[in-house]
Amino acid sequence: MSQKRVGLQTVKLSNPPSILGTATIVGPKEGEGPLKDYFDTILEDDMWGQESFEKSEAKIQEEAIKQAIANANLSPNDIEYLFSGDLLNQITTSSYTARQLSIPYFGLYGACSTMTESLSLGAMIIDGGFADKVVCATSSHFSSAERQFRFPLEYGSQRPFSSQWTVTGAGATVLASSGNGPYITYITTGKIMDFGIKDANNMGGAMAPAAIDTISQHFKDTGYGPDDYDLIITGDLGLVGKKIVLDLLRKEGYDLSENYSDCGIKIFDGVEQDTHAGGSGCGCAAVVFNGYIYKEMLNNNLNRVLLIATGALHSPITTLQGESIPGIAHAVTIDNLVS
């Protein structure tokens, strides 16, 4: 019989894992945005000396993981499991990264929800007593994702307003069974939601129903409400998805207008940087969480955060076949203090 289950979809961790260290690496465009001071490394060139965008993304993820481990004052030999994923076919970025690191590896695919999926599984592994130290990571790259999911870069296609800019970047988190926090205290695992959207240029609209369902269920399961959080932040719904979330959760009786934001909106200046509806990609929630949110929590400017990373679980083939886009959202509560 499960003793840690709370409600229908939430787990309350008995021994909340502590975040020992994080790291972020971002591309030039992200380094020009509003959060530039929170990132550890800003690249001058998104190729980073590699022969392809795909190899560049693998290097970005590998170096972010190494840097997070070093920031936690550990070595790779101290890490018992690596949980990571990305957007590319067969999660090749993460698998090629794991090849270099020689850490026992769980490869994950949650699309842009991968950061909270990895944090969820890493935290449960530690809380269950199966490991003491793990790394959770993910990455994306504008150029590698764009040519896989949409059009060749050389095509120069015009982007509609609802489209989002895939973040070039990687974020990594070291979790441990002991430490001074912040801590992961609750995990709410999402369900697939699909409201029939088929437009790959409207990721916010496709993923918003999953975010709404997970946030609402989290409140029902835990007894928390919007006022119990300093910040409630989704992964990469952008301007389109954020409006949907605010409108529909208000109809369910939850007013998030005072403390809700979205990583895809915070990472870019949409007007000055011309990113249309905002940022997206696995790296979006990863760098905003491991950079901005983590450092604001260390400075006690934020004490309890609900992070809900959202993913669109489609592929180029299913889109061409006329399939709709399933969405998923996983939520984790991060607390500075645990009772």
Q: Could you give a short account of the major beta sheet?
A: 7 strands, mixed
Named at the architecture level, the CATH assignment of the largest domain is 3-Layer(aba) Sandwich
Secondary-structure content class: alpha/beta
- Major sheet: arrangement of strands: 1-2-10-15-14-11-12
Strand content: 15-25%
Radius of gyration: 18 Å
Number of domains: 2
How do the SSEs run, as a string of H and E?
Answer: EEEEHEHEHEHEEEHEHEHEHEHE
Count of individual helical segments: 9
Q: What top-tier CATH class of the largest domain fits best?
A: Alpha Beta
Description of the structure:
- The chain has two domains: 5-176, Peroxisomal Thiolase, Chain A, domain 1 (3-Layer(aba) Sandwich); 183-335, Peroxisomal Thiolase, Chain A, domain 1, CATH 3.40.47.
- By secondary structure, it is of the alpha/beta class.
- The model has no long low-confidence stretch (mean pLDDT 93).
- It has helices at residues 53-71, 92-101, 114-127, 142-149, 203-222, 238-251, 263-266, 282-298, 316-320; strands spanning 5-6, 10-12, 18-26, 41-42, 81-85, 105-108, 133-140, 165-166, 169-176, 183-188, 231-234, 260-262, 279-280, 304-312, 327-335.
- The protein is 33% helix and 22% strand.
- The two termini are 24 Å apart.
- β11, α6 and β12 form a beta-alpha-beta unit.
- α1 crosses α2 (92-101) and α5 runs parallel beside α6.
- It is built from nine helices and 15 strands.
- The strands form three sheets. A seven-stranded mixed sheet has the order 1-2-10-15-14-11-12, sandwiched between helices. It has a six-stranded mixed sheet with strand order 4-3-9-7-5-6, with helices on both faces.
